[in-house]
Amino acid sequence: MSLTTTRNDILAHIAGVADRPSKKILLTGEPGIGKSTVLDRAAIDFTAAGFVVLRATPSYAERRTVYSTLWDLISELGRASLEELPAEYRSFLEVALGQKQPSAEVPSLATSIALESLLVHASSNAPVALLIDDLQWADPESIAAIGRAFRRTTTRPVHLVATSRDYDRSGEGAPLDFDASDVYALAGLTVEELEAVAQPAWPTTLTRSQVVALHEHTGGNPMWALEIIARGQLGSLGALAIGMVRAPDSLASAVAGRLLTLSPDAREVVSIVALLGHPPFELLSTVLGFGEIADGAIGEAEAAGFLRATTRSVRTRHPLQASAAVSRLTPSRRRELHRFIAQAIDDPVVRAQHLEQSQPEGPDETIAQALAKAAVVTRQRGARLRAAHFAAQAVNRTDPLSAPFQTRLLTQAQHLFSAGDLASALDTLDRVSPYRLDVGQYDVYLALCTSALHSSRGHTATHEFLRAQIEEIGDDTIRRAIVRANALEDDLMPVHVRAKVSALSFAVLEGVGAPNAVHRALRGAIRAQIDAGHGLNAELIATSTERQGVQIVVGLDDTGLARTAFLSHLIDDVDASRAALVELVEWAEREGKEGIARTFLMYSALAELVAGDAVTARRFAQQAGFSATSADIPPTVLPILGLLLVTGAEYDALERLLSTWESSEAGSGIYRDLEIPTLRGLSALARRDWASAVAHLRGAADRADSLGLVEPGSRFRVDAPLIEALFHLGEVEEARRRLDVLRAFLDEHERPITRIAVHRLTSLERAASGDLEGALAAATESIDAAVAVGRSVDEALGLLQRSRVMVRLRKVTLARRDLEAAHALAGMSGDRDVLARIAFAMESSRRPKSPTQLTAAEQRVLDCLREGHANKEIAARLFVSIRTVESHVASILRKTGQPSRSKLITRG
User: Fold this and answer.
1) Interval 778-801: pLDDT, tens
2) How far apart are CA 521 and CA 544, in angstroms?
3) What are the residue boundaries of the HTH luxR-type domain, all occurrences included (predicted)?
4) Can you say whether the dihedral through the CA atoms of 667, 673, 674, 677 is positive or negative?
5) By C-alpha distance, which of 762, 838, 851, 776 is closest to 807?
6) Mean pLDDT of the chain, nearest integer
7) How many angstroms separate the CA atoms of 724 and 762, rounded?
8) Using CA atoms, how far apart are residues 657 and 668, in angstroms rounded to an integer?
9) Dihedral over alpha carbons 289, 290, 292, 293 (to 10 degrees)
10) Taking residues 477-482, what's their average pLDDT?
11) Other Cβ atoms closer than 10 A to 771
12) Do residues 864 and 681 make contact, with C-beta atoms less than 8 angstroms apart?
């Protein structure tokens, strides 16, 4: 029996072949499983380790060509190596390789001795590795020569690694007398490895469930998996029994050849077991009785390595064997067996699988009903994508003109959406005829369409779809209310409009039987209240959760729990977001909803960014599997990735992401209008490009104002960085005005994270007006507030600001201590953006000041001069005295060497 092993394990065994007593390894496995790939990697590793690598790749066509394998093996050595051998040995090898006509018959023993001499010579300076791929095709003469020569060189550093298709056999499966401990059966790719191979070959994103189904049907065989993808068969894969997917002829023929060595009854047993999947002996005996096959044939098939039996059941050893065994049956015989099995089995899922295969394609209501029932049962068992596959088969078996057709299409789309396959869900929904749906069905249809469109194609596509719906339904009040409720997902809807539409939709739809639209109306009201600065309405969330019944089709991301998770951090309640997201991630993983679980993990990353913990945020993002280069980034995840790049100081990568984002369908709505300019502004602020930062952030803030967004979190937290950039640019009046608005909000609302920022911005404001003691006190307040809530990154920013004030107060030593403490805290938080800002300040503090270098205050005065302001205007603008401005102007003239104020302006 071969020892089944993974690629990494077998590579480790191969690397240690020199330490094995036998110095040999035979790697077995089905065709297409990747044995050649492993041998290629071994050749690279051996070469890197200084081995002389001799390779042979026997082929089916060469198996009857004498010494063809030997010819391949020693061709790498070249003529020079042969010249080193004694003339007699060289002559033997030349005859064996066809390079010389023999004067008399050369015994095979002589060729073996000659090969032995060649290996001894080759291994005198470096170890030798003989690598033979597809040993099953090697010619007997080469095998005999290599086998004897290898046995005679056991004291030399000569090693052998071979691959072969055959396994669990003595004799032809082990032609070089491999010991059982030297034979390893290569396992298929793991689910993760198969996903890495399959994703680039598939035009859309594979869900985890699809990859798992692909793995089950192929046994992890990469060649077969790619063949299935090329055929476009993934749509029904999860609803098919193992063995129902035809293997490529190049793979199946190898197994079919081995099947021919069995008796007819044993071959039939393998085929029936393949059809049944994993039958208990009782069921198998019933089916064998129907086929008039003796039970003894089971033992023959098991002894030949095709079946694996336990005390209760039996199954084929590999999906490839199952596929090959089913393929040998005629279509009529296969359908006959499927019909009998469907009658003999009770499980509704397995029964539906066999009914589906028992009749030619085409509408059949009996089969459609069985498949629809199987979809329900499979969904209840937690296999969402498989439920979608059964639902798809039920649709295909339903007459398009019959009453159940539209319902089954909606059910299929619902299963696909729930499994995270949004593209397939939308394709299915395109086949639905909305005018044939009743109100309840139309409610489901709208909820699925808008959710899938918004998640995959963004704002514009969703908006256009809903506008088309309004035009089609005319004066139907209820359906118009359903459309309006779904339109509440429009992130560019002003807050007061969302509040009004939510109330109107709820009033029309209450009691109508449109639960999805009612739920969305409640969601709209919850969001409108929070955006308007009224906080998170717990009572409304409780009502929303109560309304979340079995008819709500979109998933747990629509529940009140999700509202808490997604919205609490907007009002600085990070702990509530964290707790809800932990529950949501656990639920999604338990339910197998991988796509939704990944989104929840990214929201967990966002909550940690708001909490100031960039290290934990990156860990969640890594768990989610998204990066700036991912091809399947949902629109809701894009701004989170952007923030991660900002905190990682990856500004070039951020710009590439934003540029790609803008050119995609997803780059619309609130993303384009608010979040893209905010991210660009944050990037410019970090790079000390104050003018660009102000331009981008001001545009984002103005858009937030136009939408009526009051809550700082809802505004993508744009105000604090904008005010900071304005102070640095010298736009003190605008900065002070915006800061007053933020203060007024905090007078009526408790937002601890925002309050820390306001203390720090107040320090900037007072420093700009010359009140350095007041600036020092405000900076210290921001530090104390950050310490109180355990926010190291805000504490670091507060220390940075206080150090700047300290420098202006000539307290250089204290300023340096603050900078060092800020640097350590920023490092702990993992915010590389803040760390870079502090590092710049530390470097600047060490840099000798040029006698001609302008101070920050002088630079602000110079900027005002170049704008044409008089001294009195500059004093008012910068909140300083006229005498202070005159002093700064004199210093600027001295440092720049300009003779007059007018020259200073004209040479600006």
Assistant:
1) 999 999 999 998 889 999 999 999
2) 9
3) 847-908
4) positive
5) 776
6) 84
7) 10
8) 14
9) -60
10) 95
11) 16
12) no
Question: Mind listing the pLDDT tens digit for each residue in 556-603?
Answer: 445 678 888 999 999 999 999 999 999 888 887 776 677 778 889 999
Q: How far apart are alpha carbons 434 and 406 in whole angstroms? A: 9
Which residue type does 260 have?
L
- Is residue 315 classed as helix, strand or coil in its secondary structure? strand
Measured distance CA(821)–CA(823) in Å, rounded: 5
Domain check: are 828 and 878 in the same one? Answer: no
Widest CA span in the chain: 117
Task: Copy the structure tokens of residue 32.
Answer: 């297409």
Pairing assessment for the beta strands 128-132 and 52-56 based on DSSP bridges = parallel
User: Is the residue at 397 inside a domain?
Assistant: no
Quick check: is 112 in a domain? yes
User: 862 and 842 share a domain?
Assistant: no
Within this chain, do residues 174 and 29 fall inside the same structural domain, yes or no? yes
Place of tokens 């709209």: 524
Contact 251, 221 (CB under 8 A): yes
**Token pair of 793, please?**
């990154």
Q: What does each C-alpha distance from 322 to 189, 245, 316 come to in angstroms?
A: 18, 9, 6
CATH of the domain at 835: 1.25.40.10
From residue 874, give the alpha-carbon distance in Å to each of 46, 542, 862.
76, 56, 10
- The region, left, alpha or beta by phi > 0 then psi within -120 to 50, assigned to residue 345 is beta
Q: Are residues 162 and 50 in the same domain?
A: yes
Is the backbone of residue 422 left (phi > 0), alpha (psi -120 to 50) or beta? alpha
Please, are residues 450 and 415 in contact by the beta-carbon 8 Å criterion?
Answer: no
Count of domains observed in the chain = 3
What is the average pLDDT across 701-718?
95
Among 144, 141, 92, 155, CA closest to 118? 92
Q: Which of the residue ranges 1-15, 286-300, 666-680, 719-733 would you say has the lowest mean pLDDT?
A: 1-15
CB atoms within 10 A of CB 308: 14
Q: What is the pTM of this model?
A: 0.66
Task: Indicate the residue among 155, 186, 217 that finishes a domain.
Answer: 186
Q: What gap in Å lies between CA 371 and CA 456, rounded to an integer? A: 29
Beta-strand relationship, 24-28 and 52-56: unpaired
Dihedral angle sign, alpha carbons of residues 446, 447, 452, 457: positive
Domain containing 899: what range? 856-906
CA-nearest of 818, 825, 755, 783 to 615 is 825
Q: What share of the chain is helix, strand, coil (3-state, %, to 5)?
A: 70, 5, 30
State how far the Cα of 338 lies from the Cα of 374, in Å rounded to an integer. 16
How many CB atoms lie under 10 A from the CB of residue 88?
11
Q: 755 with 571: CB under 8 angstroms?
A: no
Q: Specify the residue for token string 């992130």.
A: 491
CA 239, chain centre distance (Å): 24
Q: Assess contact for 81 and 99: CB atoms under 8 A.
A: no
Please tell me whether residues 88 and 162 are part of one structural domain. yes
Residue 492 identity (one-letter amino acid): L
- Residue 131's SS3 state is strand
Two tokens, residue 656: 């590439």
One-letter amino acid at 439 equals V
